[in-house]
UniProtKB/TrEMBL annotation:
Name under which the protein is recorded: UDP-N-acetylglucosamine 1-carboxyvinyltransferase
Function: Cell wall formation. Adds enolpyruvyl to UDP-N-acetylglucosamine.
Compartment(s) where it occurs, according to its Swiss-Prot or TrEMBL record: Cytoplasm
Keywords: Cell cycle, Cell division, Cell shape, Cell wall biogenesis/degradation, Cytoplasm, Peptidoglycan synthesis, Pyruvate, Transferase
Residues binding phosphoenolpyruvate, per UniProt: 22-23
Cell wall biogenesis/degradation in keyword set: yes
Major site of localization recorded for this protein: cytoplasm
GO cellular component terms listed in the entry, alphabetical order: cytoplasm
Entry EC number(s): 2.5.1.7
Length: 419
């Protein structure tokens, strides 16, 4: 078993560069199997979710070359084989293969998706959209089969009952080669949706409106190769900004698109965090007394649910009482008990997180229960007096590119040990 060991109490100083967006790249890779030629991605993060997706598309017959942050995918030899439970189950985003296989072959058999345990994570909206486009859903053991009666998918008018990133992207991917026009109403507006639409359009798709709540897709017959730069990871950026505000003495975070982080930055400003924001970077100063604030998550451009856990340790450095309400995943609270073990005055009461700050944290053995809870525990460990040992670190490595190297360069005492 691998663990992250942190000797806390050392302040962070210097420069850290944000990597390409996890939630983009995990959709871009499955989308590429729709192409009839080579597609190259630049800015690909070194995370295990990418390793898993690369293994899956290689099994499907794609030729893949990976060098540093560049990933070249040749999907010309892709075969429609059942994608078994196992690898597929290791990540949530495997559900994007439903959309891309349906788009390419009008048929897909894929193991049920896994991912972080944030409470119930249904995929009914994805399935409703595929059914509207003519696919039928059936279950075979731990796999799901989606298939039309031999015809290509048909464009359809789809209203999303809930704003869903995954369902919006998946529908867009499936509709790219469908016959006729698909319209998605009440679409999610996250930057990763625009990134996927940009790649698909550069491959020859006809998608309009990505980034608004109505997206229209005119189906095309074929898609060509292209080269694409993955957008910066706004959640990784927010995580480092929160760490820098909690325990930094001047940290410059680069490759940040401020426009993707407006609600997060506004919340930090409300706390009194001092930052200098440039075109593509944020400099976080050493902080004086911060004010406790309450956080409520909502779909983009609201405060991201993925940043609720990473900001929690910073809130514990402030003065006062505050709450965190996650309206997207209300059971996304697994970091709370672990941080309480480190001495935080934080509880889950009546569907919300309540904290009283400031708190002095003490190093302890803790467990990362999901990706963003893991980021919260890393920050808490950096802040704490003494040694923190984090287990279940595979969750953290799924989404934070070179996190040990990046934090070490900032002056943290952090390492991975094998037990
Ligand atoms: C994506 C992100 C995840 C982020 C989440 C919300 C990826 C790989 N993951 O997850 O990091 O936390 O967006 O920003 O991009 N819902 C349904 N039915 C569905 C689909 C979703 O009811 O078919 C509900 C969910 O339970 C949740 C809400 O819709 O309450 C939003 O979920 P969604 O945006 O779909 O999350 P994911 O795409 O799974």
């Amino acid at each position: 078993m691998r663990k992250i060991v942190i000797n806390g109490g050392k302040s962070l100083k210097g420069h850290v560069a944000v990597s390409g967006a996890k939630n983009s790249v995990v959709a871009l890779i499955p989308a590429i199997i729709l192409a009839d030629d080579i597609v190259t991605l630049d800015g690909v993060p070194a995370i295990s979710d990418v390793d898993s997706l690369v293994e899956i598309i290689e099994i499907m017959g794609c030729q893949v070359k990976r060098s540093g942050e560049t990933l070249e995918i040749d999907p010309r030899g892709v075969k429609n084989i059942p994608l078994p439970y196992g690898k597929i189950n290791s990540l949530r985003a495997s559900y994007y293969f439903y959309g891309s296989l349906l788009g390419r072959f009008a048929e897909a058999t894929v193991g049920l998706p896994g991912g972080c345990d944030l409470g119930p994570r249904p995929i009914d909206l994805h399935l409703k959209a595929f059914e509207a486009m003519g696919a039928k859903v059936s279950y075979e053991g731990e796999s799901m089969r989606l298939a039309t009666d031999g015809q290509p998918l048909q464009g359809a008018h789809i209203y999303m009952d809930t704003v869903s990133v995954g369902a919006t992207i998946n529908t867009m991917i499936a509709a790219t080669k469908a016959k006729g026009r698909t319209v998605i109403e009440n679409a999610a507006r996250e930057p990763e949706i625009i990134d996927v639409a940009t790649l698909l359009n550069n491959m020859g798709a006809k998608i309009r409106g990505a980034g608004t709540d109505v997206i229209s897709i005119e189906g095309v017959d074929s898609l060509h190769g292209t080269r694409h730069q993955v957008i910066p990871d706004r959640i990784e950026a927010g995580s480092y900004i929160a760490m820098a505000a909690a325990i930094g003495e001047g940290v410059h975070i680069t490759n940040v698109l401020y426009e993707h982080l407006e609600s997060f930055i506004a919340k930090l400003e409300e706390m009194g965090v001092r930052m200098t924001i440039d075109e593509d970077s944020v400099f976080v100063e050493k902080q004086e007394q911060l004010k406790a604030v309450s956080v409520k998550t909502s779909p983009y451009p609201g405060f991201a649910t993925d940043l609720q856990q990473p900001i929690t340790p910073l809130l514990l450095t402030a003065q006062g009482r505050g709450t965190i309400i996650d309206t997207i995943y209300e059971k996304r609270v697994n970091h709370v008990a672990e941080m309480a073990r480190m001495g935080a005055d934080i509880t889950v009461t009546g569907g919300q997180i309540v904290y009283h700050a400031p708190n002095k944290l003490t190093g302890a053995p803790v467990k990362a229960t999901d990706l963003r809870a893991g980021a919260a525990l890393v920050t808490a460990g950096l802040m704490a007096e003494g040694t923190t040992e984090i287990s279940n670190i595979e969750f953290i490595l799924r989404g934070y590119s070179n996190i040990i190297e990046k934090l070490t360069a900032l002056g943290a005492d952090i390492k991975i040990i094998e037990e």
